[in-house]
Amino acid sequence: MGDFAYETPPNQLTALRVWLTAHPGSTAEEIAESVYPGKLTAPARVRAGLASLRSRCEARRDGDLWYPAG
User: Which of 11, 12, 19, 49 lies deepest, with the highest CB count within 10 Å?
Assistant: First the structure.
């Protein structure tokens, strides 16, 4: 993937945070289908956003499932 680093905008992080709180135990694909319906780049955007939330200790991962931290 080269040196490209995608930084998720704050409003997208908020959308992911809200969605995870309402739907704990979801996969990145499920989140992408709901938060960004019909967008081809949605899964990559969601995975980048979830990784960002995880690095901030705001989300946690258990296998393929994501949960809000706490």
Answer: 49
Structure tokens at 48: 């980048």
C-beta separation of 51 from 4 below 8 A: no
pLDDT in tens, 13-29: 888 998 899 999 999 99
CA 31 to centroid of chain Cα atoms? 7
pLDDT band at 52 (very low <50, low <70, confident <90, very high): very high
Per the CB < 8 A criterion, the answer to whether 50 and 59 are in contact is yes
